[in-house]
Amino acid sequence: MKNLLLSIQHLLAMYAGAIIVPIIVGKALNFSPQEIAYLVSIDIFMCGVATFLQVYKGIGIGLPVVLGCTFTAVTPMIMVGSKHGIEVLYGSLFASGIIIVLIAPFFSYLVKIFPPIVTGSVVTIIGITLMPVAMNNLAGGQGAPTYGDPLNIMLGVMTLAIILVIHHFSSGFIRSIAILLGLVIGTVIASLFGLVDTSAVHSSNWFELPKPFRFGGFKFEIGSILLFVIVGIVSLIESTGVYHALSEITQTPIDRKDISKGYRAEGIAIVLGSIFNAFPYTAYSQNVGLVSLSGVKSRNVMYGMVGLLLLAGSMPKFGALATIIPTPILGGAMIAMFGMVMAYGVKMLGAIDFTKQDNLLIIAVSVGLGLGITTVPGAFAKFGEDYAWLTQNGIVLGTFAAILLNLFFNGINNQQIEENMK
Hints:
Organism: Macrococcus hajekii
Number of domains: 1
Order of helices and strands: HHEHHHHHHHHHHEHHHHHHHH
GO molecular function, one term: xanthine transmembrane transporter activity
Membrane topology: Multi-pass membrane protein
Low-confidence stretches: 414-422
Largest sheet: 2 strands, antiparallel
Protein name: Purine permease
Distance between the termini: 47 Å
Keywords: Cell membrane, Membrane, Transmembrane, Transmembrane helix, Transport
């Protein structure tokens, strides 16, 4: 019973992050409520599969790592899906997953060209580009008849306030699910104003197994593949920190081979997820805190959570419950969640020696170019569609700028990189 309760705790800690990404992407790509309910269900199901791949030592790193969909993929998925279509979106995810699997054994060496000054700049760009999504949802959803209605703003801000209050006045497990509690409380309050539509729940099936290629087959586009490879690399770097943290907490030594297996498991999870129209994955840091708080380091707890995820993901009615959350309520929660992505990027940059003008230039130019193209995508349009993957994609352009400028100013020598760190 104790292990079951701990498994439920882990499920609740990652649940808000797991459901928000498919809801945002589904709404942005004009999916029907039933299709969004499927996206939520398949995401929950595949989070279970991905976590199993990571926890099972024969395939993954063998630590109590929870894999969930990454927020860094939200803007790229919306961007690619809107411009090139769903088949290119999932074809690009599939190809990027294959590439992640192939580079997994060598990534610990490749990571030299992705020091904090590069990854911090990239994550900052991604975080800032996510904020318009949050603000549009806070206002009621772009294109909605009630867009900008004061009631929407009030409900969204109220939800954000609830999350902040819970986080400030609680600790341990309750703090780890502050966003989930904020969504639930906000939805209950919004229902008093008649803003909750439960029709998707009533029309959903009780049980349904995942269907491969539900939204079509694969098509491939080089720029989109490259974009998701960058997202995957950022996720691997984030996961590396989780691996080392859990290694210390569980007192389980890990070596380069173990970390490579962890990378490989994430790549396989992306490949499988694309086949079933799910999402890219990364290690969830919020669940690391639960392992530390509970003191229970058994992988059996993770296997129990995997079982719960697979069960919940096979019940469309359970997934449809997430779709009843009103858009302004989501927007309020997104400000906190996406803001944390941006803040995490700033935190990574905080490790840089800002007394060196070279480092300031690297950040200034890479973030400036990335945000510039994101806000003015037509600036380089005359270079043609053949180069659109670079000239009209702020994340890709910003990443390339950060890598090249860092190589120019700092090189790839480990000592040089360390000298630029505090």
